[in-house]
Amino acid sequence: MKSSLPLTEQDLSDFATALEETNKDFDALRQRYEEVRDAFSQRSQTQATITQGHLPKAELKRLKKQIETLEATLENQLMSWNNLKDPFWQVLRFVGLGLVLGWFLRGWFGA
User: Within 10 A of 110 (CB to CB), how many other CB atoms are there?
Assistant: First the structure.
């Protein structure tokens, strides 16, 4: 079956570029996932060390500081602007489209 719109060299080039960008984004996502997984693991190990026994106050203070740092790392990884940028703009776009459509329908039907 022949397509009504033939592919051009530019179409293939654009697809290759989009595929490469997707691959880079996936690699970045995989790296963030591994960082978050490692931080969870370190936090669990540190909490286990704290609850296991009697530690000197200096060691206990150091471990609690390490947990705070790991939790900050986890929060930064999970709630960065890069992670929220695309969903934010999609929500804004569709909410805006819904408002415009609503105003149009209201004006059209005179409700």
Answer: 5
pTM: 0.48
26 and 61 fall within a common domain: yes
**Residue span of the structural domain in which 66 resides:** 9-79
Mean pLDDT by 10 residues, the chain (111 residues): 67 86 84 82 81 78 82 68 69 80 79 56
Q: How far apart are CA 17 and CA 12, in angstroms?
A: 9
Cβ contact 39:74 at 8 Å:
yes
Domain assignment present for 3: no
Burial 12-30 (b: 16+ CB within 10 A, else e): eeeeeeeeeeeeeeeeeee
Q: How many domains does the chain have?
A: 2
